[in-house]
Design a protein that fits this description.
2 helices; mainly alpha; rod-shaped; about 100 residues
Length: about 100
């Protein structure tokens, strides 16, 4: 595997892990905040349920956005790689002639 491809793959993995950690942290923080807020048990459970659903929806939207952006960037990098390879081959072909 080429060095750049490995670097890109590692950056992609790292970004995904960071996004997941942020999402889990946000959900945990929201749940803890609600647990320490005053209110009846049934109200608290309802608020926890709504907050959890909202957090899961936001997390899913962020993951979807990240995957789409990653796919666009991967396609862009592949295009640059292809154009660079073609330019190098053309330059080498001119040198050999």
């Amino acid at each position: 595997m080429a060095g750049r491809e490995l670097e890109t793959m590692l950056v992609e993995r790292s970004a995904g892990r960071h996004l997941a950690a942020v999402a889990v942290g946000a959900l945990a923080g929201a749940a803890l905040g609600l647990l320490y807020a005053p209110g009846p048990g049934s109200e608290l459970r309802d608020r926890l349920r709504r907050t959890a659903r909202s957090g899961m929806d936001r997390t899913a939207a962020l993951v979807d956005h990240g995957q789409r952006r990653l796919a666009r960037e991967r396609d862009r990098v592949r295009g640059v790689k292809a154009r660079t390879g073609a330019a190098v081959k053309a330059a080498l072909g001119r040198q050999a002639a």
